[in-house]
Amino acid sequence: MAGDRQQPRGHDARSEKLIDSLERRITRVESALILLSIAAIASGDYLFGPKISLGYLYLIPLSYSALTHRWSVTAVLLAVCVVLREALGPLEHASWGLVARDWILVGAFLAVVTTLHRLGAARTAFFREARRQRDDLSREVEMAAAIQRQIIEQHRPPVGLLDVAARMIPAKVVGGDYYDFLPLKELRFGIVIADVAGKGLPAALLMPAVKIALRTLVSQYYRLSDILRQLNGIFVENLPPASYFTMVCAVFDAERARLVYSNAGHLPALHLRAATGEAAWLSTGGTVVGLLPDVEFATGEVAFEPGDVFVFYTDGITEVQDARGLDFGRERLATLARECGGRPAHEFVSAIHSAVDRFRGAEPQADDATVIVVRVPSG
User: Fold this and answer.
1) 150-178 per-position pLDDT tens digit
2) N or C, which terminus of the chain has less Cβ within 10 Å?
3) Cβ neighbours of residue 4 under 8 Å, at least 6 residues apart?
4) Strand 258-264, strand 285-286: pairing
5) Ramachandran region, residue 353 (left: φ > 0; alpha: ψ -120 to 50; beta: rest)
6) CB under 8 Å to 57, separation ≥6 — which residues?
7) Collapsing DSSP states into helix, strand and coil, what is residue 302?
8) Residues of the chain with CATH 3.60.40.10
9) DSSP designation for 57
10) CA gap 281, 288 in Å, rounded
11) Domain 155-375 - what CATH class?
C-alpha cells in the first residue's frame, strides 16, 4: 500500500528565471536603442553638416540612459556625444564662443541628468524591492508546500485490509485537492477525497481545517450522513461567501465486503466489477460542502468481490483537455481501469497519471490531479 504526493514541479523557480532573463533582455534592448539613437544622430550630423546640426537630439538617448543605466555609463555616453557633436556638426566652422556655449549647456544638462539619474536609481530600487518581496513570497509558498506535503504524507492507508494507493499532483506549488485515510474499528477504514474551489495557496489553506474538522467529527458520529451534515454546518458558518468544496466520504468494511459512501457534490467514484467488467458510478449523496445551510446527505451502499476496483479522483483527471479541447472523460478512465484491473494499486495510480499526462500533451497542467485506487485482492 502506498500514499504519496509528487514533489512540486518548480513553477516558482522557473518563473523567477524567466523574470530575471526578461530583465536582462530588456536591459540589452535599452542599451541597443540608446547606442543606435546616438549612431543615427551622428550619421545625420555627418551627412547634413556643417549647414545643419542634429546634436541637440543627443539629449533623448542621454536622458533615457540616465533613467536606465548607471551614472558612469551615462557620463561616458555624454562625453562621446559631445565629441561627436563637435567633430561631425557645424562647430568646426563656428567660433570658440559657440563651443564654450555648448559646454555650458552640457553643464546645465548634467544637472538635469543628475535628477534623471535619481529617478533611475529609484526605479532600480523599486525593482530590487519587488524582487525581494517576490523571493520572500516564493519562500513562504515553498514552506506552505512543505507543510502540505508533510500533512499528505501522514495520510497512509491501513495495512492488511485492502490494496490502496493514492497520489496528488498539484497544478501549482501547493494544491487545493485533499485526501485522507481514517482508521476505524472492526476491519473498517475510511477514505476521503475533496476538491476545494479554486487552486493554489488560497485553496490549500482550507486543507488543514478540513482534516481537523473531519477527524473530530468521525470520533463523534457513526453515520456518514451525520458527519457530512455537521461538517457542512461548520464550514457554512466559517467560510467566506461562495467558498465551498466537494467531497466523497467512503467507509470500507473488509469483513462484510461492503462500501458505504456519500458524495457531496464531487465527481462520482468508479466501481469496476471484476466478474463482469461493468463500471458503476457512485454519486449518491448531496450538494457541495460549505455553500448552503441545513443540507442533508444521503448514503449509498455497494457490495464488492475479490478483484473489484474502486477509483476516487478529482476533476484534474477527467476534465483535463488535449490540444483539441476534448476532455479525458469518465469513459477513458473506465477503459483504463479495465486494462489495469489486475495490477497492484500503486501501479494503477501511476498508469492513470501517465495516461492523463499523455492525453494532455504539451498543454500545461491546469488543475490539481488526485487519484485514490482501492483494489480488492483476488486471493
Assistant:
1) 666 666 776 777 999 999 888 876 677 88
2) C
3) 152, 153, 166, 167
4) parallel
5) alpha
6) 37, 41, 44
7) strand
8) 155-375
9) G
10) 18
11) alpha beta
What lies within 8 Å, CB to CB, of 269 at 6+ separation is 248, 250, 261, 263, 281, 282, 310, 311, 312, 313
Cell numbers linked to 333: 478512465
pLDDT in tens, 30-47: 888 888 888 888 887 777
- CB distance 357 to 318 below 8 Å: no
- Report how far residue 331's alpha carbon sits from residue 272's, in angstroms, rounded to the nearest whole number: 12
d(CA 308, CA 349): 15
Q: Which of 56, 45, 142 is nearest to 101 (CA)?
A: 56
How long, in residues, is the chain? 379
Amino acid letter, residue 39: A
Contact 211, 180 (CB under 8 A): yes
**pTM exceeding the 0.70 threshold for the entire prediction:** no
Are the C-beta atoms of residues 71 and 117 closer than 8 Å to each other? yes
Task: Check whether the bond before 50 is cis (ω within 30° of 0).
Answer: yes
Residue 99 near residue 91 (C-beta atoms within 8 A): yes
User: By C-alpha distance, which of 239, 208, 213, 209 is closest to 228?
Assistant: 213
